[in-house]
Amino acid sequence: MRLLLVEDDSMIGEAIRAGLKRDGFAVDWVRDTASARRALETEPFELLLLDLGLPGGDGLTLLEALRARGAALPVLIITARDAVADRVAGLDAGADDYLVKPFDLDELAARIRALLRRKSGRSEPHLEHLDVVLDPATHRVTRDGTEVSLSPREFALLELLLERPGAILSRGQLEERLYGWGEEVESNAVEVHIHGLRRKLGAGFILTVRGVGYRVRPAR
Ligand code: CA
Predict the structure, then answer these.
(1) Are residues 141 and 114 in the same domain?
(2) Which of 12, 79, 103, 215 could form a disulfide with 52 if both were Cys (CB 3.0 to 4.6 A apart)?
(3) Mean pLDDT computed over 85-95
(4) Ligand 1 centroid to 31 CA: how many Å?
(5) Claim to verify: residue 160 and residue 185 sit in the same structural domain
(6) Domain residues for 178?
(7) Domain shared by 104 and 14, yes or no
(8) What is the Å distance from ligand 1's center to 58 Cα?
(9) Is 191 strand, coil or helix?
(10) Is the confidence at residue 10, as pLDDT, over 90?
(11) pLDDT value of position 40
(12) Which residue, among 34, 46, 111, has the nearest Cα to 77 in the 3D structure?
């Protein structure tokens, strides 16, 4: 899952990026509103983590502009502004959640998972398809009740495919969502991870749609 972090404080930004990376998220980090605007126009993000006090313009203004043009991306405000009036203003400007600094990284990750769940229309915390169950919180995957050990990239790729079991995702779409800026992507990386997943989950669990991409096997 690829997230955009907008945060001008180096220490806080670094801590959030490192913490979320450990939790399996690909985090792109910008420090001002102009860069955030550019990034949002050109890259596919699943969620926006938005500080409010930023160089080049307030985060709230960015959020209002984003909603004005109809962007449905979930937005979580992370700020030191803890007054009730600030929280109300943030949520009313279109934020989906609001977390006051300093916060615990585990809580941040849990709130992100909750927002992503809501975004994909799920209420239950697990992703389940056929005999495979994936738990985004614990990073555990089981097949027919037996735990399967996946690499972090295999896990992230499977999560993307299970989010919308009917969707076909192209190699390019998977690469964009799996890797952040500056991360080296081997040309056949997606194929290698698909191969690994098929070995562990059964050859027929992920289908290749020739010339288009990949999807999970339909339930019937
Ligand atoms: Ca700030």
Answers:
(1) no
(2) 79
(3) 97
(4) 9
(5) yes
(6) 127-216
(7) yes
(8) 9
(9) helix
(10) yes
(11) 95
(12) 111
- Average pLDDT taken over every residue of the chain: 94
Q: What is the 3 state secondary structure string of 87-103?
A: HHHHHHCCCCEEEECCC
Ligand 1 midpoint to CA 68 (Å): 23
As to burial, measured by CB atoms within 10 angstroms (0-12 exposed, 13-18 middle, 19+ buried), residue 83 is exposed
pTM: 0.88
Beta bridge partners of 140: 135
- Write the DSSP assignment of 9-52 as a string of letters: -HHHHHHHHHHHHHTT-EEEEESSHHHHHHHHHHS--SEEEE-S
- Residue 141 CB burial class (10 angstroms; 0-12, 13-18, ≥19): buried
User: 59 CA distance to ligand 1 centroid (A)?
Assistant: 9
For residue 181, the model assigns a pLDDT of 82
Give 85's pLDDT tier (boundaries 50, 70, 90): very high
If you measure from the C-alpha of residue 44 to the centroid of ligand 1, how many angstroms do you get, rounded to a whole number?
24
What separation in Å is there between the alpha carbon of 187 and the centre of ligand 1?
37
Residue 16 CA to ligand 1 center (angstroms) comes to: 13
Looking at the fold, whether 113 and 132 belong to one and the same domain comes out as no
DSSP H helices in the chain: 10-22, 33-42, 59-68, 84-92, 105-119, 152-163, 171-178, 189-201
Q: How far apart are CA 110 and CA 44, in angstroms?
A: 21
Distance 88 CA to ligand 1 centre (A): 18
Residues 16 and 105 in one domain: yes
What is the distance in A from the centroid of ligand 1 to the CA of 53?
Answer: 4
